[in-house]
Amino acid sequence: MTTLAPAEVPTSNPPAVTPAPGHKRTSIGRVIAWIVMALIMVVTLAPFYWIIRTALSSNSDLLAHPSTPYPVGFSVDSFKRVFGWQTGDAAIAAGGSGQSINFWLYLRNSIVVACLVTAGQLLFSAMAAYAFSRLKWRLRGPVFAIFLAGLMVPAIFTFLPNFVLIKELHLIDTLLGIALPGMLISPFAIFFLRQFFMTISTEVEEAALIDGASKVGIFFRLILPMSVAPLTTLGVLTYITSWNDYFWPLMVSYTDSSRVLTVALAVFKSQTPQTGPDWAGLMAATLVAALPMLVLFLVFARRIVNSIGFSGLK
Amino acid sequence: MKRIGKIKSVISSARFRVKAVAVGVTATLVAGVSACSGGGAAQPNNVISYWLWDSAQQPGYQQCANLFHKENPKLSVKITQYGWNDYWTKLTAGFIAGTAPDVFTNHLTKYPQFVDLKVLRPLDELPATKDISDDEFQPGLGKLWTGRDGHRYGSPKDWDTVGLFYNKDMLAKAGVSADRVNQLKWNPQDGGSFEKTIAHLTVDTHGRRGDQPGFDKNHIAVYGLGGLSAGDNMAQTSWSSFAVSNGWQFMDKNPWGTHYNYGDPKLQETLKWYFGLAQKGYAPKYGAFSDSFGGYNQFAAGKAAIVEDGAWMISSYQTIKDVKWGIAPMPIGPTGHRAGPLGSLADSITTNAKNPEAAAEWVKFLSSEACQDIIAKAGVVFPARPQATQLSLQTRKAAGVDATPFADMVDNNETFFLPISSFGADISAIMTPGLQAIFIGEQPVSYLTDLNQQVNRLFQFG
Amino acid sequence: MASHVVSPAGRPTDTASRTPSGNRRRRDDTRLALIFIAPAAVGFLVFLIWPLTRGIYLSFTSFNLLTPAQFNGLDNYRRMLLDPVFWNALKVTVEYVIINIGVQTIVALVIAVLMQRLTRSMVVRGIILTPYLVSNVVAALVGLWILDTSLGIGNQLLKLIGIGPIGFFSDGPWVIPTIALVNVWRYVGYTSLLIFAGLQTIPGELYEAAKVDGSSEVQMFFRITMPLLRPILALVLIISIIGSFQVFDTVSVTTAGGPVNASRVLQFYIYDMAFGRFQFGYASALAVALLIVLVIVSFIQYRLTRAGQTDLA
Fold first, then answer.
1. pTM score, whole prediction
2. B450 touching C (Cβ < 8 Å)
3. CATH code of the domain containing C90
C-alpha cells in the first residue's frame, strides 16, 4: 500500500554527515528551508498589504500621502463603489467614475464563462491528450507536434479573425461567444495532460483491456479518475485564467448581458488619458474579484495535493 | 484477485465522478446557450448608438439623450461608455467587423487617421447637419474638423486650452502675488520672470528656495513647475505653448500640412531652455515621477507649486482636498504674445451607421443650444458655442473656480491649432522616444533635426 | 496520481501472471484517435490555424485593416531587417525572458519542493497562488505605485537603509529587470503549482528507500526529483518561455516602451504597429519573426530536455 501524499517531514542532515536512520532532530537544513519559505511568503504577500491599504483609503488622501504605511482617510467607500452601492455624484466626489455597476449580473456572467471554458477545455483536452499518449496510431507524433505549434501562434494573428468569425456566427455580445475560442482548444492543456498520462503505467491499462474494457471505457473509467490531481490543478488554473481574462471579453461584449466582472471593473481604471485610475476602487475591485478564486482554490486544494490511494499492482 | 476487486471499486466511484462531470458540463452548456438569447440581435434602425469615454460627462449627455427622445419620439439614443484605452481598441475592432457605433466622440489626435481610413461620414452630405457653419462655434473649431477635401467630419462640441494651475498657499508663502503670476514672461535665454518665479517657488529638502545660495538642486521637496515631461508630437500640456509663443510653427500649414518644422532653431532653443529647467532643479527630471503621477498628482501631493495643465482637468483639481488653487494664463513669450493649444472634441458619424439620417439628427441636437446649455451647466468642459461657454464660466464661478484665463486666451486669439496631418501615429512613434532621449540627455537638442527628417520622409513615401 | 511500483531497482511483481502479448490484438487506433481529437482539432483549425495562415499571408502585404490588403512581396521583411527598433525589441525581449524565466523557474522549483517536502499546510499553498489571482494590469499598476521613484514606498524603504532613490520604471538599465521581477511575482505561484503537480507523480517509496540508504534532502533532490520531474519541468519551461516572449500588459501599463526604447518589447511594438499605426502588414511580418524565434527556442528546448520521454512509465 503506498500513498503519495506528501511524505512526513523527513529527517535530513547536511550532506557531509551520515545520519542515523530514524533519528529525528531539527537540523540546519530545515531551519534554512523554513526561513526561505517565510521570506517567499512575505514577498508574495507584501504587495497585497499595499492593495488592502489602498482599498481602505480615500483617493484624495492617497494623493496627498502616497507612501504612509497605513490606510489614509480610512473609508470603505471603495468597496461600496465596487458593488454598485455608490454611484453618480457621490462616487465622482470620492474620485470614482460614477458609473453604475450591476455587480451580481457581472459575477454571474464571469461564472458562466469560466465554467464553460474550464469544462470544455478539461474534457476536450483530456480526450486529445489521451489520443496522443495512450492510443497507438501512425500519425501521432507529427500531429502532436502541429498541435504544440499552436502554443506559439502570436496573439496578434488570432484576435481579429476570431472576432470577425464570432460576429459571423452571430455570437457577438453573448457569453458563448466569449467562451468559444478557449473552450475547444488549449494546446497547453493538451500538452500538460499528455505529460501526465504518459506517466501512468501501461500494466493497469493492459489488465483492464484483458478484462474486456474498451479503449473508450478505459479513458472514462480508468485514466480520468487516476488523473484527478492534474485535472483538478489544470481545472483550477484554467478557471482562474478565464476569470481574469480581460481583452477578449472586452471585445466581444457590448451590453451588460455579456459583460464579465473584469470588463465591468475596468471603470476603476483611468477613463481619460489625463486622469489617473480610481486607485482605492481599483484595489477594492481587485480584492473582490480575486476572492471567489481564492475560495475555489481552497476548496479544491485538497484534490490538487493529494492523490488517490490507488493500490496498483502490489 | 485483489487487483480486480480494487479496480472495480475505483470504477464504481469513478463512474459517479464522471457522471457528475457530465452533468456539470451539460448544465453549463445549457446555461451558456440560453445566455445567448438577447445577444447578437441587430439594433432596430431607430436606436442610435453613441459612444463616449469621459464618464464625468455621461450624465449630461444622458440628459441630452432624454430630451432628444422627447422631441423625436420615434428615435432614441443608447449611450455606452468605455475608458480611453479600451475605447479606441473597440472602435477600431468595430470598424473592421462592422460593429462600430453610429455616432461617437472623436478626438483630434485620432481623427486624421480615421479620415484617411475613410470610416467617417461627411456631415455636410446629410440633411440634418449640412447647414452647420463654422460661425456657430468658437473661432477655429469648425476648421479643425474639416478634412483635406473640404468635407466636415466632426461637429465640434467642446474646446479646451491649457493654463497654469497654481497653489495659492505656496504662492502666498513665497510672496508671489496673483497679479504677478498672471503676467509672467519667458524667453529662451534666461527664462524671464517665469523662470525667476518658479525658481523662487522651488524648495529643496533643507528648506532653501531655488534662488537662494546653497540651493541643493538634487534634493527637492517642492518643485516650482511640476509635470514637466518630454511630450510627444503634439506636446499639448508641455512645451508647445512655449515654442509657439517663441514664434515657432508645427507645420507649413495647419490643418493638413505636409512638412513639419521640428528641426527649427526656435524649437531647439525652446526645448533647450525647457528641459534645462529640470537640470536646474526647478522641475522634475525624467523619471522623478512615473507617468502615472503626472502634473496633477504632483500638485495634489503637494510636490509642485505650479503645473501646466488643461481646462479639462478642472473637475479633477476640484477634488483635491485642502488645497486652494487658482488658474493663470500661459506666460508671454518673446513674440509678445501668449500661446495655448486649442483642443477640441467632436461628434462623428461612422460609415457603417445603419440609419445615417437619424444619426445626423442626433449630432445636430448635440451641438444645438439646448444640449450645449445642459453640458455647460454640468460644468465639466467648455462647450463649443460661445454662449454656452459663458454659461459654463458662470457655473464654474459659482463653484468657486475662475476659469476666465482660458476663455480670455481664445478671445484674444492666443490659441493655435494642434498639428492635424496624416501619419499622426507614426510621427508620435518617432518623436516620443526621440524627445525622451533629449530630455534624459542621451541626445543633444540638435537631434531634433534628425527626427524632423524622419518625420518628413513619411510624407515623401507615405 | 497513479501509484505504481516502478523503482529503478524493482520490477512489477506479477508480470508473470500477465497474458503473453501475443494474445492482445495489436490494432491501430487511428479511427478512435481521430474521434478523440475531433473537438480539439476543430477548435485548433478554426481558432488557431486559420488565423495563423491568414497572418502569414498578410505579412507579405500592406494592409491597413479597412481596405483590401495589397501584396508587396518581401518589402515588409526587408524593412524589418533594416529596422533598428525591431532589433532593439528583440534584444530587449530576450533580456527580459532570461531574467524572468531564470528567476521564476528557480524560485518556483524551490517553492514546489518545499511544498512537497517541508509542509502540508493549505494556507501556504493558498498564499503562494494569490498573486496569480490578480490581473496582469492590476499587478503592473500596483508595481508602479509601490516602486515609483519619488512617491513609492519601495524607495522610502530604500532611503532608510541609505540607498538613493532608484528609478525602477524610468532608469534605462533598471526597467527590464523591474518588469521581469513584477511578472515573476505574479506567475511564480502558478508555475510552482504546475511543478508541484508533477512532483506528485514521483512515488514516495523512492524517497523512503533513498533515506534508508542515507541520502540527504539535497542529494535526493538532484538524484530523484530532478530526473523524474524532467517531463513536467520541460513542459513548464517551454510554456513559460513562450508566454514570457509575449509580455505586453505590464509594459503597456508601466513604461509604454520607454525610456526611449529601453522596454519596447517585441509584442508591444507589434501591437502599436498594428492597432496604433494601422500598418498591419508590417506588424504581421514582425509577428512572424516572433513566431520563428519561438519555434526555434521551443524546438531546442524540447530536444535538450527530451521532454517527449519519461523515465517513469
1. 0.85
2. no
3. 1.10.3720.10
Domains of chain B, start order: 47-159+344-408 (3.40.190.10), 162-342+418-461 (3.40.190.10)
Quick one: cell of A182?
Answer: 478557449
Q: Is C270 inside a domain boundary?
A: yes
Q: How many angstroms separate the Cα of C293 from the Cα of each of B69, B205, C39, C96, C125?
A: 56, 50, 29, 14, 35
Which run of H or of E encompasses A55?
helix A28-55
**Phi (first) and psi of residue B224, to 5 degrees:** -65, -45
Taking the Cβ of residue B430 and every Cβ of chain C, the question of whether any pair is shorter than 8 Å is answered with no
In a domain, C220, yes or no: yes
Neighbouring CB atoms inside 10 A of A159's CB total 20
Highest mean pLDDT among A55-59, A168-172, B113-117, B444-448: B444-448
**Within an 8 Å CB–CB cutoff, is residue B378 touching chain A?**
no
Say if the Cβ atoms of B7 and A211 lie within 8 Å: yes
Pick the closest to residue A268 from C112, C36, C51, C138 (CA basis).
C138
Mean per-residue pLDDT over chain B, rounded: 87
Residues constituting chain A: 314
**pLDDT tens sequence across C277-299:** 999 999 999 999 999 999 999 88
Spatial separation of the C-alpha atoms in residues A172 and A258, rounded to whole Å: 9
Distance between CA atoms of A287 and A56, rounded to whole angstroms? 11
Best of C104, C114, C134, C138 to substitute, by most chain A Cβ atoms within 10 angstroms, is: C138
Interchain contact, B286 vs C170, CB within 8 Å: yes
CA distance C6 to C205: 10
Backbone φ, ψ for residue B304 (5° rounding) = -140, 140
* Residues B94/B100, Cβ–Cβ less than 8 Å: yes
Q: Does A64 touch chain B (CB under 8 A)?
A: yes
What is the second-level CATH architecture of the domain A103-268? Orthogonal Bundle (1.10)
Query: Residues of B175-185 as b/e, b for ≥16 C-beta within 10 angstroms?
Result: ebeeeebeebb
| Rounded alpha-carbon distances, angstroms, from residue A189 to A59, A271, A307, B209, C61 | 42, 36, 20, 62, 34
Residue C59 included in any domain: yes
Record: contact B11-A222, CB cut-off 8 A:
yes
Q: Which residues of C touch B432 (CB under 8 A)?
A: 258
DSSP class of C60: T
Q: What is the pLDDT of residues C238-277, one digit of tens each?
A: 889 999 999 998 998 888 887 889 999 999 999 999 988 9
ipTM of the complex: 0.83
Element (H, E) at C128: helix C122-133
CA distance C17 to C276: 69
**Kindly report the CA angle at A13 between A9 and A19, in degrees rounded to 5?**
100
CA distance C254 to chain A (A): 13
If contacts are CB pairs under 8 Å, which of residues 116-145 in chain A contact chain B? 116, 119-120, 123
Question: Residue C33 CA to chain centroid, in angstroms?
Answer: 29
Number of domains comprising chain C: 1
- The alpha carbon of residue B431 is apart from the nearest alpha carbon of chain C, in Å, by 10
Write out the DSSP string of B353-410.
Answer: -S-HHHHHHHHHHHTSHHHHHHHHHHTSSEESSHHHHHHHHHHHHHTT---HHHHHHH
